[in-house]
Predict the 3D structure of the following.
Amino acid sequence: MNMISCPHVLMISEITADGKLTLGKGISSKILMKHMSHEAEVLLHQTRAEYDAIMVGSSTIRIDNSFLTVRMVEGKSPLRVIPNAKADLDENSNVFDTSLAKTVLAVSEKAAEERIDIFRAKGVDVVVAGSEHVEYPRLMQILSEQYGVKSLIVEGGPTLNWHMLNAKLVDEIRLIHMPFIVGGSDTPSLVGGMRIGSENEMIRLKLKGTAMYGENLVTEYDVVY
Ligand SMILES: NC(=O)c1ccc[n+]([C@@H]2O[C@H](COP(=O)([O-])OP(=O)(O)OC[C@H]3O[C@@H](n4cnc5c(N)ncnc54)[C@H](OP(=O)(O)O)[C@@H]3O)[C@@H](O)[C@H]2O)c1
């Protein structure tokens, strides 16, 4: 799809009937996930086992303290990738426990050497993928060329989802629908950051499948840029 070498990217999210990813701003999505059917949880972990890498945003690590490992099925945990320009995340977050799985921290040239050294001392790989911020096309190229990543899951949050869609790097979207309404005008929804001025800027999706996993409808789309 892209000129640069780039993994196939699947965006996955659990989402309420009103399009929200959590109960409210700053609240962990783990609360919502507790209500997911066992079958849908297994699907999430099975997909992790099938993909080479998984990426979530730094705010998700701060709020959810995610592990991003495969736990509910047999299989190898994917390479964990965290974009964090200044390397200012807590190095003791679960995702940096490299005894569980390998982790790549993607930083920018703004990251302080001392912070990079702290992560490297924990066995975390640190890659520089941008000048001010992490540049996602560049990160995709690094993951593909240096780590042999052919497939990548993006599991949110909304800010990272927006940057990946805006850079036209997402191939597929899978939504795990949670039969709840949580409301709230500032509650995170699937895609943040987006301010479109006309219908020409809408990102178009093509529905390609639906299935029930326990009580959760799962929908799958191709992204049509
Ligand atoms: N329901 C679900 O499936 C689900 C999944 C995941 C998360 N969540 C929820 O989503 C919420 C967090 O989402 P969020 O949107 O606040 O944060 P987020 O997407 O987790 O993190 C923001 C990411 O965007 C990067 N970023 C910000 N500005 C950028 C720029 N200009 N260029 C490049 N990268 C940039 C940040 O990097 P820097 O560190 O460099 O700023 C960071 O990695 C939490 O409540 C979490 O529970 C829900």
In short: The two ends are 10 Å apart (CA to CA). The chain has one domain: 8-224. Residues 35 and 178 are 8 Å apart (CA to CA).
